[in-house]
Design goal:
Chain lengths: 275, 236
């Protein structure tokens, strides 16, 4: 019959285990309550990403301290526990290499910080916004709103593109105008439009130039620098405005076209084949 | 326009129209400036609002906390200091007030915003950009559009330095309003490439009132209030 005084291992009894389990549950509850209060108190004073980080650190510290204080209920020798824990840790590590690999990658990601919460990124084939960086995995919300959990090992070993790591980003458009249109006027119209837009950066200034004499029209390339936090909305907004501004000034944007001359017409034009 | 008022506040000009009207037991805030028109329903027993200039980094949306003023180059002798007056763009904040607690109701501006990059695309900072003339005396400005910065420039280096821009960290800005909107600041040049810039908590002249700022109304925690270090040069 198993009773409270039944020894489980060493000098640890069932009662010790129950006390320890209750202590851990209480500690976790206390940590969660404190986290809720912290979020309420600081939510309008700190950025969400920073607040989440702070709350997690506070929770981890409370739980670690709680477990440390609850351990004496086992009456265990901490020195022995460390030795045993180390051995057990090694065994677990070998048994769960993937988890350890993800854990290690998570630590390196936290140190190297190639991505932060809220960053717009691409990891392998997955693009979106970083929602959470956990110790074993990174949570990305794709542009379609889909939740994707990527193991940290994969994050660490993949090519990471962080679209907002630098304060400013450059993007480009190529616009064609007809051969009959005034290219200089088109460049001036586009430049004026860009100067009026608040988020087209003054420095580095936008670059607008004739880049190619194409089959269907004269190609104008436009390089624009914008704050990385708003570059996508600027990019989606401006092309339509450029089209409208050019049309407003009577500058034709041609569609692909080819002038075909029939052999018979050619002969008639040159007078050949006529009697 | 600037100052504390109750809900009978009303301002009407060619460029902006603001009023608060009773609406079904509540009140409706209305503002029209240019093509923009906003309406917000407000309640509250205190019925106090504050309208004053705020840090000019909120519009059209907040992307930075830095303000960059580009002005006519000023050559400063080694180991000397000069006070110059330059202008900065004004954004106007409308706050609801209750027991010394403020909530941002509206922010608008009569000047056109433009942003820039100070430094390199990798390490620089996005700035709200403004061009200004330099004056040795207090310039005449429309206080609804522009404020005046009394900038004390000290050259602690051993060389003449040409200064044509100043970058301010708006999270530690002190604005005052009265006959004009003012900011008193100090720039300490350490070399041609490095200078520190700080705002001082004092008005340009007596009788001016301190502004309620957006960053304080939102109770945002500021990690540090050290002066902004301009590490990418003070000239063109």
């Amino acid at each position: 019959m198993v009773g409270p005084d039944t020894v489980v291992f060493g000098e640890v009894t069932v009662l010790d285990l129950i006390v320890f389990a209750i202590s851990v549950v209480i500690i976790v509850i206390v940590a969660r309550i404190i986290a809720i209060y912290l979020k309420r108190a600081l939510s309008d004073r700190m950025e969400r990403a920073e607040l989440d980080k702070l709350v997690k650190v506070v929770q981890a510290v409370i739980i670690l301290f709680g477990i440390w204080f609850a351990l004496p209920s086992f009456d265990v020798d901490i020195g022995q526990l460390l030795v045993v824990g180390g051995t057990v840790g090694l065994i677990i590590a070998f048994a769960s290499q993937k988890i350890v690999s993800n854990f290690g990658s998570g630590i390196f990601l936290l140190i190297e910080r190639p991505v932060k919460i809220g960053d717009t990124i691409q990891i392998g084939d997955i693009s979106g916004t970083v929602n959470q960086i956990r110790i074993l995995s990174t949570i990305v919300k794709t542009y379609e709103g889909i939740y994707v959990r990527i193991p940290n090992e994969q994050v660490f070993s993949s090519d990471i593109t962080n679209f907002v790591a630098n304060p400013a980003l450059r993007f480009e458009y190529t616009v064609s105008i007809g051969y009959g249109a005034d290219a200089g006027k088109a460049v001036r119209v586009i430049r004026t439009l860009l100067q009026e837009h608040p988020f087209v950066l003054k420095n580095p200034a936008p670059s607008i130039f004739v880049s190619e004499l194409g089959d269907s029209g004269v190609k104008i390339t436009i390089y624009i620098w914008a704050p990385s936090r708003v570059w996508w909305s600027v990019r989606t907004e401006l092309l339509q405005k450029i089209k409208e501004a050019l049309e407003h000034e009577g500058i034709e944007i041609p569609f692909p076209q080819r002038v075909v001359t029939m052999a018979g017409e050619k002969k008639r034009e040159t007078g050949q084949g006529e009697e | 326009m600037f100052g504390e008022s109750d809900y009978s506040f009303c301002y009407d000009s060619e460029e902006v129209s603001i009023r608060i009207d009773p609406l079904d037991g509540f009140y409706q805030y209305f503002r029209k400036s240019g093509d923009e028109e906003i309406r917000k329903v407000i309640s509250g027993k205190s019925r106090k609002i504050v309208v004053n200039p705020v840090e000019p980094v909120n519009l059209p949306r907040e992307v930075t906390r830095f303000l960059e003023i580009h002005f006519t180059p000023v050559a400063i002798e080694p180991d000397s200091s000069e006070i110059v007056y330059i202008t900065f763009p004004v954004e106007i904040g409308v706050f609801l007030e209750s027991k010394d607690d403020f909530d941002v109701l509206d922010i608008f501006s009569l000047s056109r915003p433009k942003y820039s990059l100070y430094g390199s695309p990798e390490e620089g900072v996005i700035t709200r950009y403004h061009e200004s003339a330099v004056s040795g005396t207090l310039p005449e400005v429309d206080r609804l559009k522009e404020g005046v910065i009394a900038l004390s420039i000290s050259n602690a280096s051993r060389n003449w330095v040409e200064v044509s821009r100043a970058v301010f960290d708006c999270s530690s800005l002190f604005l005052y309003y009265g006959h004009c909107v003012s900011l008193v600041a100090r720039m300490n040049i350490l070399s041609r490439d490095i200078a520190d810039v700080r705002s001082e908590d004092r008005p340009l002249s007596d009788g001016m009132k301190p502004s309620v700022l957006v960053i304080k109304a939102r109770k945002t925690l500021i990690s540090d209030k050290i002066p902004f270090m301009m590490e990418f040069g003070v000239g063109d």
